[in-house]
Design goal:
By secondary structure, this protein is α+β, with helices and mostly antiparallel strands. Helix content is about 40%, strand content about 30%. The termini are far apart.
């Protein structure tokens, strides 16, 4: 199972002028990982993330922070995810929003 990739949906956004990086993910079966597209698992994760974003819009104005690249669906090894994703999130959140 250590070789099974992890599918992660994440959003680079600003909520009320503050950066946020909401995400969701799940491990994939080996057969799903070999498919050309993420299929239903990818669609499900994207919809789950979009629902979270919609719910967070009650906190204030919601804005994409990276244009068309603000919603990402990535497949990464579980080891890389557990080591690098927290660093990526911390780095994203620590950069101040322009004009703030």
């Amino acid at each position: 199972m250590a070789d099974a990739p992890y599918l992660v949906a994440l959003a680079l956004v600003e909520i009320s002028g503050k950066r946020a990086l909401p995400l969701t993910g799940r491990s994939q079966a080996a057969a799903a990982a070999e498919a050309a597209e993420p299929g239903e698992a990818g669609r499900s994760l994207a919809l789950e993330l979009l629902l979270r974003l919609w719910q967070r819009s009650d906190e204030g104005p919601l804005q994409r922070a990276a244009g068309d690249g603000s919603l990402l669906l990535v497949e990464i090894p579980i080891e890389v995810m557990s080591e690098q994703l927290p660093l990526l999130k911390a780095s994203w959140l620590s950069v101040s929003v322009q004009g703030a």
